[in-house]
Amino acid sequence: MKLLDQSKLAWLLLRVSENFDVSQLVHFFADYWKGLVVCVGGLEPEDREDVFNFLKEVKLPVIADATSGLRELLGPLLVADPERLLSETSPQLILRIGEVPVGRFWRDLEKQPEITVFSITRTGFSGLARESSLIHGEVGRVLRGLGEIGELGDALDILQHCRRRWGQVDQLLEMYPDSEPGMVRMLSIYSTVADSIYLGNSLPIREWGQFAQREYPTENVRANRGVNGIDGQLSTWIGLTHGLDDAWCVVGDLTALYDMSGPSLLDGCEASGRVIVVINNGGGRIFERLPRVKNMSEPTQKIVANAHDFKFKDWAAMWDMDYKLFASADAIEIEPAQKTSVVELVPCAKQTAEFWDAYAQLTF
Ligand SMILES: Cc1ncc(C[n+]2csc(CCOP(=O)(O)OP(=O)(O)O)c2C)c(N)n1
Question: Is the CB of 250 within 6 Å of ligand 1?
Answer without folding.
Answer: no
